[in-house]
Design a protein that fits this description.
By secondary structure, this protein is mostly helical. The chain contains five helices and four strands, in the order H-H-H-H-E-E-H-E-E. It has a four-stranded mixed beta sheet with strand order 2-1-4-3. Bound molecules: zinc ion. Zinc ion (ZN) binds next to loops.
Amino acid sequence: MNQLELLWDYQQADMEAERQENTMKRSPARQRLLKYQEYLREQKAASVHLEEEVHAMSDRIDALKDAIELAETQLKALHNRFESSRPTTSEDIQSFIQETQRVAQNISGYEQEVRRIRKDAADRDNQQRDILQRATKVRSDYDKLKAEYDVEYKDNKEKLEQLRTVAADKAKAIDPAYMEKYKSIKQHIMPPLSKLNGDQCGGCRMSLPSAVLRSVRGGTPVECESCGRMIIQ
Ligand SMILES: [Zn+2]
């Protein structure tokens, strides 16, 4: 075999290894495992977000408790003042009542907010528990499938390594300059070599100018202007 025939032969082996690798990537078990992983990541993020919200709520409740305490002190002070010097004019009595009502309303507002936040926080705790339950279930499905996939992967990986070894052995006989060219074309298009098909590139079916045909038929490979493959006889 000449160099170009060897390179063509190598390509067959290389493509077989590529096909095996693609089959492995497209494995339904692998795709499902990736979906599970994505789901678990999303749920984890949602759970962290809920936790942060509950934390902020707990801070707000602390602040409200302080405010309630302060208002209760104010209320007590108002009562003490009332006891020590009872207002006599109706104006003073009116103003005492108004002030007392204002502070009492504040307290009731704060207490309402505390109750609302506690309820929201409890809702979030429930949501988090649901997330955890679902995630635990998915995690267990994931582990089961992963165990199956590991067996499948091991077999496929062995097969792939065999195919790669076959290709690597074939590569040994090939001029490094051709190999370089092959690899650089492979980054753009697969397979990198095409055979002449009449007066067309066998890869993309583009009709080739007669100068190109002459070179290829004369044993000098030419890169196809249309698809970039190395065209050989
Ligand atoms: Zn082409």
